[in-house]
Amino acid sequence: MLIDSHCHLEYKGLVEDHAGVLERARAAGVGGFLSISTREREWKQVVATAERHGDIWASVGIHPHEADGHADLGEAALLAAAEHPRVIAIGETGLDYYYDHSDRGMQQALFRRHIAVARQTGLPLIVHTRDAEDDTAAILTDEMEQGAFPALIHCFTASADFGRKMLDLGLTISISGIVTFKNARDLQAVAAQVPEHRLLVETDAPFLAPVPHRGRVCEPSFVADTARFVANLRGTSAQALAEATTANFFKLFTKAAL
Ligand SMILES: [Zn+2]
Ligand SMILES: [Zn+2]
């Protein structure tokens, strides 16, 4: 069994046909879905879908793109939303200096609020980082020193050096379909070397469809293609990789086992 540790089931491309999307994923061996929110107004919807399906869980958080629109969102709102039994993670949050859709200072402030909530709840923090390695590492290092919290880097695309820093801090690394792209040699090297107990796989659907589905709307069933590719890189079987990443998922997202 595989788990798609990061998908956006409420986004256009997937939300129109949950039944079909879930059926195709389950047929491909996907037995769990972590449905990620990116804006406060999505929280209700991701939680409602997770309430209807035993194999779907939800996260609550504000994507760095949306930081400017949530300047006033404090820890209390996140804490209250995180109490729901189907909410097992905080995020996605982090820093995106590639698009710079929100002010960098605001992205950092929201990032730290999410960290405080992850620390208080014990729910893993889902970190998005793009072209922001130095600040991401600095904030995570600083915050870990103030009190450890569980966390992962989702859709890892950063340098091997950054990856090592994150592993040293205790983070897990999640690999998306980008790893299957022809020009992703650096990422492939990272994916081959992440310690087995720190590895997850995800789709980030509806984005980033892996080979051989490029150009199509990405859906959670495609996590099987990514997992097969990563297994190949690591010289292991698809089944062993599925077992390891699923075990890692439940070890990290402890609330999902309840
Ligand atoms: Zn992201
Ligand atoms: Zn995402």
Task: Tell me what you see in this structure.
This protein has 258 residues and is an alpha/beta fold. The chain contains nine helices and eight strands. It has helices at 18-27, 43-52, 75-82, 104-121, 133-146, 160-169, 185-193, 223-234, 238-252; strands at residues 2-7, 30-35, 56-60, 87-96, 125-130, 151-153, 172-175, 199-201. It has an eight-stranded parallel sheet. The protein starts with a strand and ends in a 6-residue tail after the last helix. The model has no long low-confidence stretch (mean pLDDT 97). The structure holds zinc ion (2 copies). One zinc ion binds next to loops.
Order of helices and strands: EHEHEHEHEHEHEHEHH
Shape: globular
User: Are there runs of 5+ residues with pLDDT below 50, and where?
Assistant: none
| Gyration radius, in Å | 17 Å
Kindly, what is the distance between the CA atoms of the first and last residues, rounded to a whole number of angstroms? 18 Å
